[in-house]
Each structure stands twice: as structure tokens, then as C-alpha cells.
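Hi L.,

You mentioned the student needs an example of a multi-chain input paired with its predicted structure. This one should do, with 724 residues in total across all chains.
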Amino acid sequence: MASDEEYSLQFDEDESDEEVTALYESRNTSEFTLPDLICHKHATIISQESEFDIDDDEDDAIHEYEDEDDEDDNDDLLALPITMSTKKALSEGSVPNLKYECLTTQGIYERMLKRIHHLQPLFSIPPDDILILMQHYDWNEERLLEKWTEKMDDLLEEIGLNVTSKKIVDNTNSNTRGLKYRKDFSCFICCDDKTTETFSLECGHEYCLDCYRHYIEDKLHEGNIITCMDCSLVLKNLDIDQIMGHASSNILMRSSIKSFVQKHHRNYKWCPYADCKFIIHLKDTSSLGEYTRLHYSPFVKCNESHRFCFHCGFEVHAPADCNVTNAWIKKARKESDNLNWVLTHTKECPKCSVNIEKNGGCNHMVCGNCKYEFCWICESAWAPHGKSFYQCTMYNNDDNGKTKTTSTEDAARRLKRFTFYYRMFNEHEVSAKLDWKLGQTVGIKVKALQEKIGVSWIEGQFLSESIQTLVEGRTSLKWSFAVAYYSDPSHNLTKIFLDNQILLAKAVEELSELLLTKQPEAIMKKKPDFYNKAGFVENRRLALMECGRDLLCKGICKPTD
Amino acid sequence: MSRIIKEYKTIQKQLNNNRNNQDDEFNNIIVSLAPIDPDQDLTKWEAVIKGPQGTPYYGFNFILYITIPQEYPTVPPFFEFQPRSMPHCNVNYNTGEICLDILKQDHWTPVWNLMSTLKAIWLLLKDPVPESPLNVDLANLLRFGDLSAYNGLINYYLNINVV
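Structure written out for the whole complex:
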């Protein structure tokens, strides 16, 4: 069994030797020593139960890494302290050096407001106006500044912040911005004559408050700048709140930030878990390609502890890589009628892969998600279509006529094989969910434990850690069936993989059984068992993941159709 | 609904006036614009417009069906040509569907009304937009500059319906 000294020695070497560190970072991929490190850690825990020392060591090491990088980040204006450390990534058997932060729309918006505050002296216009400018340029400060120095006042006019003389309606008294109280006002929109409050901007296009409210309500969720109904003059947040009677501009800002996140889907990803509000921001995506090339998946974790793959935006899926995951999910859905409909009526956005239904309009499509413009027929970028001859009509949809030459028997056999793996996959998914529920009760158990026997919080931690390990083990197990499905069954490595799978399944079930213990006293007594089993699950999981990656690297596992 | 009643009245007045004075450019383009069943249902309308001068559509009348959604005027009305009557690069020939930005929620504003929308469609007949076509064949001919083929094809389609 390795000792603490050896462990820290390893890190010391890395730190003292700068070249090694640089190499380590520049390569940006996990060394093969990494899983060893982790196994190593667990082995130590099991033998000595002195995890705190080790954690301290590891924390220090990681802080060193972060400090180095933070210096580079200082000039990045959106830099925030990094909330998730590499330590997490390490313990998840994923790749280190993936630096990201966890945000919410509100957080991003507040940061934008801070930026606007900084920019204000440059612009000499009210912050509200700068907000509109930022919104217009998709919160892209550089582009805004560029245009601003280029055009200045013309820009304000172009965007609709300032009134041009020709746009003003020759109404003498209504050319003031704001609410007015009018007797017998005839609204041009609803054609009602009534005594009501009205609203107009400097342009003098005056409508009753009801109509304005309907109009704004419809626009709030689009996240675009809202203008006067008849001209391009902008409604500022203050105007919107005034019309709506409450702080509705928040909704608009949130939608605007949402569309910002979606447009920058390379760097920003929503946590895919239901109802999770967090967004992960990865500044440097250059290394993502390298991870996938080596069949690793770059996992991130949001503040709600949801883990997902930053590359494909799907839940954590090791040992399967993104391709296998994608193929598997499509395959799994194909069996349902829903997917049949999706396949026949929708196409994937060529850029962000969102499924798009064309329910009318011309072939000039704009993806609602990433705003990519493309041609429905040939699925390539729209830009060349605007000017040149339509080549895409030459394309015949003949390949849609699926003439399957394979015999029905073969298809049936394949379906049977798939159904088997899918059932296994599904079972572990359900179990993982049940385990998660169990995890909720563990929280109560731990509490009962603390009250009953008077143990400290830290001593009860092993329970929730075990639950975490269990769920992770189940998830890996689940995805291993996807890998198994796409692997060549005759190959030796596949057989090893399947053996590993069985071992992990066994370990997982044992741990799961242990967690069903009811009495708190009994749980405390079983603490060493918990450590043993959890460590075993972790080891088996890492072994399976490494084995799966091997299959992928060697091309034995290939996602087909 | 009061909006649509008011619009109906204004439209009737305008169309009557138009017959007596010939100044406005748009005066003669709208042959009729009225609810199909004015006493029962104001959500289904029918319009007949004339083909603009200087286009292959000149000399023909075109029927449009209009559906007014419940949320009108917050939501745009739904316009379509009579199916298989309008060979135009922004109109789906088989369904009569029209691709025009102001008919889409994003570009529609409640300031538009049935009359102005109809005028916009008429202008579309005058100035087809081959950049975002529904009828790709016609758009190709137009973009290629083969006007004789373009006009010929339109004429061919238009005359099928006459016979």
C-alpha cells in the first residue's frame, strides 16, 4: 500500500519541474497515470482513513495550477473566480485542466451591468442606453465599441435610441415620452374609443395601454429589443416597466441573455438536467477536440452537482464517448414512434443539431436555437443562396426511399440484440434514479445519526459520499451497455470489457444493498464496509472506463447507423 | 373584435370611394375585400386583387383567403392565395402559402391592417424576392435573368386556370 509521502512526492516533483508542468498542461489530455492516481488515493483511504491529509495536498497542488492560469485570465473582462476546481474533474476520472465556471442568467446579466458601469464614462450616455446598445450587439462589447467609434450619434439613431427629425409625427402635444391620461382616446390598434391611459415615445405614435401591454407581453420572451409599434424607436427597460406596471424588463433581459447563451453554445452550455438553472461557461474550448479524439469526454459539474459532458451537452456518459452516446440515443429513440415523426418531419440544424420542424414559410431557415441561417433543401449555409443560382434543387431525395437489402431475419436479430442492451441500459437508469431517491433519505439518516449518537458532521459524510459513488457507478454501468452494443462481440478486448462490466455491476449491487441498512447504529458500525465497497465500485468503474476507452481508441467499438 | 368591425367599415368606405376617384396608385388593385359571410363570421375573409401592370400577372385577377386569428391584431392575419392559382417565386403553387416577412409574428406589428397587408402582397407580385423562394424553379429563372422563360412559365400556369 502506498503512503502519503509517496503521494505528495509525486506532486512535488511535478511542481518543482516547471517543464513537466508545462508539458502536462500543454498536452491538455489526461495522462495514463491519472486513473492510477485516483485508484491510489482510494487505496490509501481504505487502508488508513486519513483522507483529509491527502485532500489538503491535492488542494494545494491544484491551487498552484489555478494561480498560474489566473494571471492570464486577469485581462479577460468576464473573468470570475473559478468555482469548480480541477480536483472534481480528477476524482471523476475525467480530464484535468478543464477550467470552467458555473453561472446563472442573473449572474451573467449582473456581470453585463458591471461592464456597462465600467463603459459608461466612454459613452457619455445613460447606462440604460448602453444596455440597449449591448443588447443590439449581442452583448459583444468589442463590436459595440468598434461601431461606436465609427458612427457615434448615427449609431444611436440607427438603433432607435435617438429620434430623427423626419420620423416625428407632426402631433404637437403628444411628442413626449411616457404615459398620458386621455379622455375619449381612439386607439388605432384596438379601434376602441375610451377614456384611458396611453403611452407614446418621442415619435408620437400613441396607443392605449392595453394594446401596448399585449404587444410587449408577446415580445418579452423573444429577447430582442422592443420598438415602437410603428417605427424603430426603442422602448427602454424603464418604459417597459412603466407600461407593464411592474418589473417586466427583467423577463426581457433574461430572454436576451438566454439567446446570448444559445448563440455562444460553444462556450456556454445549459445544464441538461430538468429545471436546473445553471450555465457552464468554458472559456477555452480549444482542448475539447483533443479530448474527443482520445475518446475522453470532458465532464463538467454545475453547482447543483449535476454532471454532464460539455462536448455533447448530454449527461455524464463514460465509458461511452460522445459519438457512441449520440448514436445510442438516436437508436434508442428510433424504436419509438415519436422519433419516426421527428425523422420524417424535422431536420437537424447543421450547426447546433437542434431538431427543426418546418411548418411553413420558404426554404430560408433560421435556427431558433443558434440563429444559424441555412437552406432547408441542401442543409448548407444560406449566405451563398442569396446571390447565386440554386444548385440545391438538383439534389434528389431519392436516398430517402429506404430500400433495405438486408433480410428481415437479420433485421429481427439485430433488433433483438438491441432490445436486450437497451433493457439493461434502462434498468440501470431506473435504478440510478431510485438510488438518487435513496440519497435523499440518506440525508435524513445522517441527520438522525448525528442527533442520536452525537457524531460529528464530518464523520457522517461517508454515507453521502457512498451514495455519490453509487450513482456514478450506475451511470457508468448504464453507458457501458451502449459501448457493448456497438462493440465487435468476437474481439478479445470486448470480452474483457464485458467481464469488467459484470464486476462493476456486482460491486454496485453490493454497495446498493449496504445502503439499505435502516438503523443508524448499524450504519456506523458498517463504516469500514462502506469504504471498502465504495472504493471497490470506484476502482471497478475506472477500470471499466479505461477499458471502454481502449475499445474506442482501437476502433473495436464503432457506432453504426 | 371591435377592431375587425371597424376595419370592415373603413374598408367598405375606402373601396366605395376608390371607385369614384382614380388618384391613388392602389385604387384599382383591390377588386373586393370582405368577409365571406359578413353576418355570421368575421374571421374568414376573401379578397380579389388585380395583377400589377408591367408583370405577367397583368390582366388576371387573383383570389386570396384570409383567416383572422382570435388574437388579431397582436398576431398577424393568415393570408393565402387560392391553391394552384399563383405562380410566383414567393408563393407555394400547390398550397397558395405566401412567404412574406410581415406575415410572420416576428415582423408583424399591430399597426398593419388587412388593407395594408393586402397592398404589401400586391407589391410582392410586382417585385418578387428570389432570395427566399417557395417556388424554386421560378426563382432560378428569375435569378438567371431568363425573363422570357420566366414570363412564359408564369403565363403557362396562369392560362391553365383560364381554360
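You could point out the following to them. Residues 349-402 of chain A form one domain. Confidence is low (pLDDT under 50) at residues 1-96, 393-406 of chain A.

Best wishes,
N.
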